[in-house]
Amino acid sequence: MRNISYPRHCRGFFRLKAFFYPLLIISSFFFWQSCTTELDTIGQDIIDGQLGVNATDTLTIKGVTQSEDSVPSSLAQRNLLGFYSDEVFGNTLAGIYTEAIPPSPTFDIAGERAPEEILVDSVVLSLAWINYFGDPDAKLNLNVYELSDTIPEGTIYSNNIVEKLNNPINLQSDFDLPMDSIFLGNDTVSKIAPHLRIPLTEEFARKFIDNPEITQNLNSNDDFRGFFKGFYIEALPVSGLGALAFFDARVALSNMRIYYRHEGDSIERSFTLPLSTPESRRYTYFNNFDYQNVAPEIQNQLDNEDTSISDSLLFIQSMANFRVKLDIPFIDDFNLQQQEIAINSAKLIIPLDQEFLEDTLDIASALILLRGAEGQDEQENSEFLSLIDQSLGSDYFGGNLDEDKMEYTFNITQHFQRVMDGTIENTPLFLRISGSVENTGRAVLKGPGRAEPSERMRVEIKYTKLIGN
Questions:
Q1: How far apart are CA 208 and CA 227, in angstroms?
Q2: For residues 410 and 353, what is the distance between their CA atoms, to the nearest angstrom?
């Protein structure tokens, strides 16, 4: 069949004999009324009654759980920090690499005074709090390091490691989750929004005070990066369930601030390096410990692509942990089996397994569906492309969890037709958590081998045999 951008509209209607033209007028009315959101149902009632729409949900699907190598994390609004132990999905650790760039590259804290006349009271690294996942009573066990290498520019992936200096610069390692607003200093009236405060060493603070011959002659952000390259905030494993905290490094409350005074007076002064400048580079680093503590149902799929398990259960998790690879091998044969047809709709239905996970608070609220690049080594699966259906908008494409049905649905009508026509290759599809880099979503999905049709992952197809066939 030839390439059809909107297969049902172009083919299912316009190849009709003359006595069907009145149907075209009626169908056109429905088209203009709901073109953008109902592309898979336009004129469906007319076609069902007059042309005979057929339906099937028996197309073969082969699925398997795979590990994610990494995800791009440098553009995320939120950064994750902490350690979380999941009895099904294993252990995940999240750390933060970030720069702290001054408003002006050139600065001189000492000014007209000698650096030794500047007395450091404290230096604090602050991160603006958003939310958490896990045990609210869990501690964050953290170390902060100064980087010895520069954070790269451009898109940075979550498995990237930047070299750091050997010794941590924080004075405190254990922290409660900072969920409440706090009073700062001697102010007992007004509160500041919740944020994590990590005290750093005076020795680190002196770097910015004792080197005026350098700091007075910095002319650009790249010059400053040569002087100070940034922080790595490392999370360490903790006992119990643990917790992952969400922070926003793009707001003014996220900064490094040196509190100091001049020798001989008591006036408190401060110097601030914000984390939130547009020039600051940052990203979240994820460590999954080589999936050593995942459930056997996951491990067997990772090691052996065990379809006896994936037929029943598939696992998907954010934070560069797990995705699902789907093969639908007989799409391109569907046209041969059914003779010449037009696809009215093709929907990928993905039921959620509610019994496998008791805690529903962490269920992924939305998935994304991508396809592998053509001509790519299937073992690599390093490049992913959007499906053409996604260009029609999220309301049409789908992917959100239907909490009434407890399932996800994707409209893949155009993708299906293009594969069937031979316009694109039938490459594997890949399910991921939407916003994987900045949320803790996970889900256990019902596989395509479940005995009960309504309980299994499936492609529901409605199609019309064209006139003359």
A1: 9
A2: 18
- Going by their DSSP bridges, the two strands 90-98 and 79-86 should be labelled as antiparallel
- CA distances to 68, 307, 429 from 64, rounded to whole Å, are 13, 7, 11
Residues 312 and 182 reside in one and the same domain? no
Domain annotation covers residue 286? no
Residue position matching structure tokens 């000492």: 110
Domain assignment of residue 273, yes or no: yes
Least-confidence region, from 6-10, 71-75, 130-134? 6-10
Q: What is the mean pLDDT of the chain?
A: 85
232 compared with 14, residue with greater pLDDT: 232
138-185 pLDDT, tens digit each: 999 999 999 999 999 999 999 999 999 999 999 999 999 999 887 776
Residue where a domain terminates, one of 280, 310, 340: 280
* Encoded tokens for 357: 């996970």
Which of the listed residues 257, 280, 303 is the one where a domain comes to its end?
A: 280
Backbone angles phi, psi at 48, to 5 degrees: -55, -45
Tens-digit pLDDT profile for residues 86-130: 989 999 999 999 999 998 899 999 999 999 999 999 999 999 999
The Cα–Cα gap between 33 and 41 comes to: 12
What is the residue type of 226?
G
Tokens matching residue 65: 């759980």
Residue 180, domain extent? 79-280
E strand or H helix at 413: helix 413-421
Vertex 369 angle, CA 295 and 445, to 5°: 30
Q: What sign does the CA torsion over 172, 246, 368, 75 have?
A: negative
In a domain, 217, yes or no: yes
Is residue 416 included in any domain, yes or no? yes
pLDDT value at 35 more than 60: no
Quote the CA–CA distance of 38 and 345 in Å, as a whole number: 10
CA distance 299 to 306: 9
Q: CA-CA distances (angstroms) from residue 133 to 86, 113, 138, 193, 362?
A: 11, 48, 10, 19, 8
Percent of the chain with pLDDT over 70: 83
